[in-house]
Each structure stands twice: as C-alpha cells, then as structure tokens.
Amino acid sequence: MFSVTVYTVKTPQVAVLSQVDYQGPKKKVGLLGGTFNPPHLGHLVMADQVLDQLDLDEVLLMPDNLPPHVDTKETIAAKQRLEMVKLSVEGNPKLGIEDIELKRGGVSYSYDTVKYLKQLHPENDYYFIIGGDMVEYLPKWYRIDELVKMIQFVAVSREGFKRTSKYPLLWVDVPTIGVSSSLIRQKVAQGCSIKYLVTDGVAQYIDKEGLYRE
Ligand SMILES: Nc1ncnc2c1ncn2[C@@H]1O[C@H](COP(=O)(O)OP(=O)(O)OP(=O)(O)O)[C@@H](O)[C@H]1O
Ligand SMILES: O=C(O)c1ccc[n+]([C@@H]2O[C@H](COP(=O)([O-])O)[C@@H](O)[C@H]2O)c1
C-alpha cells in the first residue's frame, strides 16, 4: 500500500520524498517529451501506437521548457506550445499532458524530470518515448547511464535512422510519418497547407496567433 508521502522541495529542480512505499498495482504511463513547436500528426501517431502496442494505460505529452541540446530551435512562448499540445490530445482520454518541465523552468534535463516524477507518482511505471532520430544522441544526455536504469526507454523507428543502441531500448514499429515540426513551420512560412499534418484545432490556433509566418 502507499503510505503517507511527504515531500519537500529541496531545490526548484528536484523534490525529495521522505517516504515511498508503494506496493499496489502500477499504472503504465508513457512520457513523450518534446518541444512540440508545433505538435503534429507524427507525435500523435507515435503516442497512440506505443500506447496500443505496449498496452499502456496512458501516454502523456510532456513539453520541455528549454531543450537540453545546443541546437536551439527557433522557439515560441511555452504557453503557446502548451496550448497546442492541449488542442492535439483533446478528445482522446488515453492521451494527456505532463507540464512538470514548464512549471519547473530552466533547462529540461530528463534525468531531473524522471527522478522527480518517480518520487511524486510511485504508483506509475513510466516509459520514456523517443523518436529513432534521438537514439544516436542518447550518449550525450545528462546522466544517461543512471537515467536508463531509472526508466524504460522506448524508441520509435524513424525513416533513415539506425535501429541500434548500446542502451536497453524497447523498439516499436510505427508507420513512417514524414512530418516534423520544422516541416510545419516551413510550410506555414511559405503559405502552404498544413491540413491533415496537424489537428484542425492546432491549424486554427497557428492561424489565429499568426505563428511561424515570415
Ligand atoms: N514523424 C516522427 N516520427 C517519429 N518520431 C518523431 C516524429 N516527429 C517527432 N518525433 C519524435 O518526437 C519527439 C519530440 O519531437 P519534437 O517535439 O522535437 O518534434 P520534431 O518534429 O522532431 O521537431 P523539429 O522538426 O523542430 O526538430 C522526439 O523524440 C522526436 O524524435
Ligand atoms: O536530458 C537530456 O540531456 C536530454 C537531451 C536531449 C533531449 N532530451 C529530451 O528528449 C525529448 C525530445 O527532445 P527534443 O529536443 O526533440 O524536443 C525532450 O523531452 C527533451 O527534454 C533530454
């Protein structure tokens, strides 16, 4: 059983639980971290396919605050990315949002996030979902050797990227979707259609907010 949990925030980054003793059935929760600038059909298909193929209870899309790698993407306000993620998962009770990285602020190291979430939700078994293009960068992730022992990584095959890694990944085959956030930004900037590449709600939001126009 889950006895009383008291946690105190030690630093803004990491909370420390004084007591974790959960022995009940665990919920299988996928975490799909990303910048979601903007979220697109590729994200939704991968979330749904992993959910189904690994029989997860839910998948949470988790917008990062500042992505850790040096390649800083042209960014928009976190509030706008969050709003578009909300619009994307609307209507699917098995998809949700984890906004912990936005609340924490700063650089979104997955190690800090996973450590915190596991302490906060001992009733969950987490799966960290990444695209096949991310796999080759895993060795550069902050405290990756510890992180891979803390959470099961799930890699989704992505066209043009190797399916090998020195880390214990679960690979899930997903129909190849050649959509990326950069492609969406580029199409909007060129005045091209993004219909069916993002949800209708996201397309309307991009239009209403005037995002990605040159
Ligand atoms: N079409 C896709 N197929 C498989 N994985 C994807 C796809 N698009 C994104 N991903 C994965 O989803 C996660 C979040 O991606 P992110 O929000 O950075 O979107 P992106 O489309 O890769 O963005 P950008 O084009 O700006 O680099 C990453 O692990 C990424 O590899
Ligand atoms: O912790 C790290 O060192 C690390 C390095 C690169 C990426 N990540 C996480 O991987 C997820 C996808 O990243 P991105 O850049 O494709 O949006 C997102 O949740 C990032 O926080 C994490």
UniProtKB/TrEMBL annotation:
Keywords recorded for this protein, A-Z: ATP-binding, NAD, Nucleotide-binding, Nucleotidyltransferase, Pyridine nucleotide biosynthesis, Transferase
Domain Cytidyltransferase-like: 31-187
Reactions mediated catalytically: nicotinate beta-D-ribonucleotide + ATP + H(+) = deamido-NAD(+) + diphosphate
Record-linked Pfam families: CTP_transf_like
E.C. number: 2.7.7.18
Signal peptide extent: none
Highest taxon, organism lineage: Bacteria
An annotated Gene Ontology molecular function: nicotinate-nucleotide adenylyltransferase activity
GO biological process, one term: NAD+ biosynthetic process
SUPFAM superfamilies with a match to the protein in the record: Nucleotidylyl transferase
EC class name: transferase
Keyword NAD: yes
Pathway: Cofactor biosynthesis; NAD(+) biosynthesis; deamido-NAD(+) from nicotinate D-ribonucleotide: step 1/1
Protein family (similarity comment): Belongs to the NadD family.
Function statement: Catalyzes the reversible adenylation of nicotinate mononucleotide (NaMN) to nicotinic acid adenine dinucleotide (NaAD).
Protein known as: Probable nicotinate-nucleotide adenylyltransferase
Native source organism of the sequence: Ligilactobacillus agilis DSM 20509
Annotated gene: nadD
